[in-house]
């Protein structure tokens, strides 16, 4: 890796508070792009002022550099005369700003502003949160309202609803049984949705509860922009949110048992919550489908396409996810749902 000549992490910490600065280290994942995330509290401050991302591998270093580039792009949309006539407007307050590019042990370190709010994921995993229709509906409403405003601010023409991922799936999972049929399914979804272009806008790319901060019932911050695109299909983040929110509904339930609050769902194979959305009955599938239908119709697309949009996003995750097992599980889930259509 090329030698960096940026200021060191230690020197930055010294500048923002020296020995009086407090730090909180967030959980470190085991993904190939794992990063150490540190919150910095200036002396006397109750809220963090900065978020520091320190990569633990060369793969993670490239991820940090990608996020820095995407946030720099978004900063160009934050002014009154944004790129291609677009402007983030009020949404700019919910996007981190790059504060500094640093170096630690020869790898790049990114420092951004800290945003207010509590992680939606923390509430998600709190006692019986996902068992209550009211609390789940509030999460969907907050996510939908933010996406709606963000889409309006960043629209720039139209684009295909689904990118070509069939070849990527074929190459990534070459030699495994059934992959040819999976790739054909992904290509069929792309062709079916080709007649329904959607607005091209800024797409977050990993829009799930773990990346949303909430305050007073509204999204106050959206973090982790490394997978963002300036001109992607607006439908992508809608589908990603539903998939991610549904994946963990049975996380705290023993296999085979009914999931509290969801009589039609039993804890079972990986992705049972997404199958529940696609084929189940009850208030949660109805809520998730309504979220997708309303979002697609707002984008000028028939709401009845929600199933294909959801399946296409499963294929996209299988093609794009860094974690190999996570990607394979999405492909197996696509296969199960495809066979039940």
Rg measurement, Å: 21 Å
**Helix and strand run:** HEEEHEEEHHEHHEEEEHEEHHHH
Sequence stretches where pLDDT stays below 50 over 5 or more residues: none
Averaged pLDDT, please?
92
CATH class of the largest domain: Alpha Beta
Approximate strand percentage: 15-25%
Query: Might you state the CATH topology name of the largest domain?
Result: Aminoglycoside 3'-phosphotransferase, Chain: A, domain 2
Short description:
It is built from eleven helices and 13 strands. The protein has helices spanning 9-16, 58-75, 120-124, 133-154, 166-172, 179-193, 235-247, 272-279, 283-298, 306-320, 324-339; strands at 22-25, 35-41, 50-55, 98-104, 107-113, 118-119, 158-159, 198-203, 212-215, 218-222, 229-233, 258-259, 262-266.
Describe the fold and architecture:
- This protein is of the alpha+beta class and 341 residues long.
- The chain folds into two domains: 9-113, Phosphorylase Kinase, domain 1, CATH 3.30.200.20; 118-339, Aminoglycoside 3'-phosphotransferase, Chain: A, domain 2 (Alpha-Beta Complex), CATH 3.90.1200.10.
- 42% of the residues lie in helices and 18% in strands.
- The protein is built from eleven helices and 13 strands.
- The strands form four sheets. A five-stranded antiparallel sheet has the order 1-2-3-5-4, with helices on both faces. Strands 6-9-10 form a three-stranded antiparallel sheet.
- Helix 4 packs parallel to helix 9, helix 6 packs across helix 10 and helix 8 packs across helix 9 (283-298).
- The radius of gyration is 21 Å and the shape is globular.
């Amino acid at each position: 890796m090329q030698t960096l000549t940026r200021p060191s992490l230690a020197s930055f910490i010294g500048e923002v508070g020296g020995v009086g600065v407090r730090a909180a280290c967030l959980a470190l994942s085991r993904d190939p792009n794992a990063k150490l995330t540190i919150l910095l509290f200036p002396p006397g401050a109750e809220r963090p002022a900065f978020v520091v991302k320190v990569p633990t591998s060369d793969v993670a270093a490239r991820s940090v550099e990608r996020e820095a580039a995407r946030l720099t792009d978004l900063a160009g949309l934050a002014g009154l005369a944004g790129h291609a006539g677009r402007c983030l407007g009020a949404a700019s307050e919910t996007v981190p700003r790059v504060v500094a590019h640093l170096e630690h042990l020869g790898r790049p370190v990114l420092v951004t502003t800290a945003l207010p709010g509590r992680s939606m994921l923390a509430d998600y995993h709190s006692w019986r949160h996902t068992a209550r229709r009211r609390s789940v509906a509030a999460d969907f409403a907050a996510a939908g309202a933010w996406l709606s405003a963000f889409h309006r601010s960043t629209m720039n023409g139209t684009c295909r609803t689904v990118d070509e991922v069939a070849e990527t799936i074929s190459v990534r999972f070459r030699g495994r049984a059934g992959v040819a049929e999976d790739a054909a399914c992904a290509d069929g979804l792309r062709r079916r949705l080709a007649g329904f272009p959607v607005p091209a806008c800024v797409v977050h790319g990993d829009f799930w509860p773990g990346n949303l901060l909430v305050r007073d019932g509204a999204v106050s911050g959206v973090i982790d922009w490394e997978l963002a695109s300036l001109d992607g299909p607006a439908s992508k983040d809608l589908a990603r949110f539903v998939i991610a929110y549904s994946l963990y509904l049975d996380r705290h339930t023993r296999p085979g048992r009914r999931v509290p609050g969801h009589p039609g769902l039993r804890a079972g194979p990986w992705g049972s919550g997404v199958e529940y959305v696609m084929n189940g009955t009850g208030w949660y599938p109805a809520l998730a489908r309504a979220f997708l239908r309303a979002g697609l119709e707002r984008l000028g697309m028939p709401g009845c396409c929600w199933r294909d949009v959801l399946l296409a996003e499963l294929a996209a995750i299988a093609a794009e996810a860094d974690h190999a097992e996570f990607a394979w599980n999405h492909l197996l889930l696509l296969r199960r749902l495809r066979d039940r259509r």
